[in-house]
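Can't attach files on this board, so I'm pasting raw text. These are the components:
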Amino acid sequence: MSAAQLAIPVALAYLALLFVLAYWANRRAEKGQSWTDNPLAYSLSLAVFCTAWTFYGSVGKASSSGPVFLTTYLGPLLLSPVWYLLLRQMVRVSKKQRISSIADFISARYGKSGFLGGLVAFIAFACVVPYISLQLKAITVSLNTLIGYDPATTDFSQMTILGDTAFFIAIILAIFIIFFGTQNLDSSKRRDGLMAVIVFESVFKLVTFLALGFYVAYGLYDGPGSIFQAALEKEELRPLLSMQGNDNLGYWDWSWFILISMSAILFLPRQFQVAVVENSHEQHLKMASWFFPLYLLLINLFVPIIAIAGRLYFEGQAYDADSFVLSLPLAEGQDALALLSFLGGLAAATGMIIIATLALSTMVTSNLLIPILIRTKAIDLNKAQQLSSSIVFARRAAVAFTILWAYIYFKIIANARPLVDTGWVSFVGIAQLAPAMLGGLFWRSATKAGAKAGILAGFIVWGAMLPLPALWPDWAALLADSEQHPVPRAAFWSLLTNLIFYVGVSLRSKPSALELTQAALFIDDEDHSPFAEPEEDDHSQILNHDIVALLSRFMSEQALEWAEQFFEEKGKSYLPMSLANNQFIQAAENTLGGVLGTASARAIFASMVKQKPIGQKQLFKMLQETEALLRYTREIESKSAILQRTQAELQQANEQLKELAQMKDDFVSTVTHELRTPLTSIQSLSQILKERKDSLPAERQAQFLAVIFKESQRLGRLIDEVLDFQRLEQRKMSFSYSRFLVQELLADVLLILEESMEQNGVTVENKLQSLRPNYIVEADYDRLKQVLINLISNAIKFKQAGRPLRIQIDAEKNGKELIFSVSDNGIGIPNELHQSIFEQFKQGQMPSRDKPKGSGLGLAICKQIIEQHRGHIWLSSQPNFGSTFYFSIPLTTKK
Amino acid sequence: MNAKILIVDDESSIRLALEFLMQDQGYTVATAANGQEGLAKVAEFGPQLIILDVMMPIMDGLEMAKEMRTQGLSPDTVILFLTAKGQEQDRLAGYAHGGDAYLAKPFDNQELVELIAEMLED
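---
Top answer:
Structure tokens for the assembled complex are below.
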């Protein structure tokens, strides 16, 4: 039987095989023996990236343009070092948040925004449906090529629907997806049967492509070398071997193609589906990070060889480069190989259709349909109705709608374009999600408003520069720029606009509380996120039972099971009539998010559960509390600083007090000693006189009485000093000011001290005598006299033994003051005492050997008197050479 | 008996009273105005008892007693501290420096006389 006869039955058999495979895979998974839950299967499933575009279009592109087809695969290859880290973060976040699509991901990151979810779903639909239609076209073209139509001349858009096999294949695939893709209500759950099919197809398309490549290289020609050699000899084929190719592409274009394919491998909805949603273990990513690039390398190995071989083979004939993989074996009569090739292409196409449709339908239901139904009250949350079947129905309808729309698109538009270019239009469109995705993973200040603005702006520029010119020739003419390839140009402008809006608006807008929470969840490692586990004690007003009732309307009996399991994992039991805690509410919302999409779940929970799990108010409260805590901490810090200062001050004051107490003790001890000394002799002598009045000789009696009298006077002076000092210190002593000549005062003082000086052999030099102008001061005469007597007496007291004492008294004008000085050649005063000697009781600290002379209050009294005259008292002294005491008194001069 | 008593005090009026009281009791009396003089008098006069003031210029009573004890001057001589510093710690310091008795100023003549007689009997 020929390939033409076998084509349709083989295709149908192949599709039947997929059903069987998926069914068995599901059965095994139910028994816990999953075929796909391993790193190799996961790595292979990522090869859904290689579609009919790879299978047919790469060859077409290579044969018309040259090596630029490689950019699609170079992007992922170059990205692979970072790919692992990016994807790991995406997987972690998605598992935790039960994210089921890229629209859900972006919507969740930016505060569970329903609008963003819808927008992304719409963009994904707009960009991916043409891409699905490409796969339908590939199936149609390849099937018809096998049957005998010449792909170079047939217009497939003119075929009637019923005569078009692609239509039937589309219907079969829709059924397949509905059956194996929408079984589980939770879209974030893995689909084993479906994934088994994808893995099988990945292997199958690689094997068939490699087989064909071997045949062309070694069966048809003498190895790749000879093919390239032949191409180099032909002038029209030579550019295909250079980097510029036929399209005159430079580094700029290459860079953009590579950049776009990088974003495609991460953000194409079907890639997100297999890499993130269908990922069962984070560890699987490790193998994928090297295995998947290797797969890409292998599948591209023979692309340039087949492309150039095709050009050489069909030289001079009409040819469709996209169909070389079929037309080469067919032309050689290799029907089996041609059929195999066809099946490989079918595998590539169906794999893509299945996953892309599934991803799109999830987004369309969760992010467009359900939100609209809720908003329009078509789904009434307040009525106790069973909603799970409606949701499943909606999702199934969405699958059918997506495939149908892809088919219609194929009929209308896809006919005109070569496979690869349509793919690039799609890629650039999807790349508009890249800034919001990547920014969302790394940039905390990125906001919902920024994401919306960036995606919308980029999408508009994309629309204007890529699909629009194809629909509107006048616009195309306006844009026409022969120098530049339209894809890199559109990529550059759309992404630039996107970025400017994303960054600009983000910087100018403030994130909401929920956005901040979500940003933290997406950016921080879960262990470090302060929001990872909501607080246990929240005052929700909803019962556990209500939450389960809400869930069960979407998940039927699974809800109760889920709730029981939730509490069991926490080591508690499910109590229907207890108030729901935050963790439970959050987990329920996440679970519902897996069914309805994050944004819808949020919307439903926000309306049903009055107390939002991590609501704006609560977060605000949390922030306020944190702020209050910070403020409190700062206050405590400053207070403790004050406290420390106060403590230091207190300690110092305490030390001073102790010192003062010690000084007082010394003073008391000194004064009592001084009081006791005269008292002792008075008491003893008077006792003798009293008892021996009669027997004691008269001269003895007179001697004793004289001593008693002298000592009584001394006692009186001491008491006066103490009282004087106390009154001076408390400012209770009244001063009687008068104007007098300083010379008069000095003469008076010297007169009083005359006797004492004579006794002690003191010579006094009064420098003020007659030679000086007449200084007049206004002061208390007696007090000033007291000061001078005190200073001179001190000099006499502390004279140096064995050296005649000389005292010099002087007064000199200094500005508006008169400065007195009393100098002596006595024992002098050590430096450290110069200040303290004027303080009360300080004499007690003089070297202990020297018995205090007097109360120790003399200088303190002098200081008080001088200061109350608004003057100062100080001294200069050198031990063993004498001292000079100075004091100043405000002056008035008489002419 | 004709015991020798040395009076060391810087206050002449107190010396006067003490000297009279001791001579009145029949003791032989010598006086000094500070510790330094006192030490010289101890060697020269050889008293059986010393009435010693504590606070004095040049050398105080405590120091003098200490010097006496360390130099081994008249080991049998008893010392009576007679001082205006009457606090407990001063008393203890007096005993620590080799004093045998402690009497605070102002004193009662009779009390002093009895104490000295007692000290000399021991």
